[in-house]
Structure formats: C-alpha cells, structure tokens
Amino acid sequence: MNSETLNSDKIAELLSQIPDPEIPAINIAELGVLRGVEEKDGMIIITITPTYSGCPALHAIEDEIRRTLLEKNINNFKIVTSLFPAWSTDWMTPDTRKKLSDYGIAPPEKSKN
Omega of the bond prior to 108 within 30 degrees of 0, cis? Predict the structure, then answer.
C-alpha cells in the first residue's frame, strides 16, 4: 500500500485512529490536533496543532503519525505544526465531549462566541 492507493481522505481516516497520548479515549482528530491532510505536488502534508504551546504530547503524536504512515509504506509525507489559529476546545464535537465525560473528564463547554 502506498500514498497513490490512499487519497488524503483515506490517510486522514487512518491517522484518525491514533489515540491522544494523554487521553486515549479520544483520537487526535476528535481532539482537534489533526487539522488537515492534503496532497500537494506528490507530498502528503499533515497539519497538526498542539493543544497549547509547548505541549509535551506533540512529539509523541508526530512519532505515531510517522510510524503509522511508514507501516503502510507511505514515506512521501511532511508533518507541519501550525500554531495559528491556536487550538480551541470549540474544535471538539459533541461526540468527543461525551467520550471525555464517559472517560471521567468533565468536558469543556463550547464558547458562546
């Protein structure tokens, strides 16, 4: 399997199976850390955003993205960290908030803005 048999949507789906290292009840897409997957000039560009500046889990997430893709023989990728816009709990879906609650974490309220 290579990136030519996997389009960006399928790669995003694959990466969405990576659990958050700190809260394994949700994955990096549900948390909003996985911001995008796109194909550009034969490269797969994976954009991630840390939940806060200096987030120690970001390196673990990058490593897991690399491992997941290399395991599928996908090596034409680049991981980009985007700090803008800053991560927000508003990026979490109602399903994600329920998973957090079921896990024993009080989910943040969605902002009223």
Answer: no
pLDDT in tens, 52-78: 888 889 999 999 999 999 999 999 999
Three-state SS for 79? Answer: strand
CA distances to 7, 16, 73, 79, 105 from 35, in Å:
16, 11, 22, 11, 23
Judged on CB neighbours under 10 Å (0-12, 13-18, 19+), 56 is exposed
DSSP helix/strand/coil, 49: coil
Q: Which fold has domain 8-102?
A: GMP Synthetase; Chain A, domain 3 (3.30.300)
> In whole angstroms, how large is the CA radius of gyration of the chain?
14
